[in-house]
Amino acid sequence: MRNPDSGALDDGTVDGERLAVLATLSDVLERLERSAVPIDAAQYRAVVARLARELAGVRPNAALYALFAARPAAAELYENLNYGHAGLCLRPLEAALGAEMAARQAIGRACGATRPGGSRRSDGASSAA
Hints:
By secondary structure, the protein is an all-alpha fold. It is built from 5 helices and no strands. The N and C termini lie far apart (54 Å). 15% of the residues are buried.
């Protein structure tokens, strides 16, 4: 049975009709995101708001992840909507950890706290860890 508020099935799964709506809205959002010409802000907000409503209450499954793999703007919106309880749920942990470590190393090099090999400066200066 369909939930009249969210449009999802009562168990939160996505049926074919709902998936088609999500795909269509996701395609529109992708076109707006990649537009070479300026777009109307109200149109953009309307598409994002409609897609957010459609995504509300949807339980992730293979079909939804496949949709997100092909439509990164929709995936980013889904993550933003669910960040409070799921974090960056679509980002591979290894890639996120690697990016954080690379950022820390770059910041350390920019501050002069470490040499490329990872050793500390020998002039007595130290940095808070």
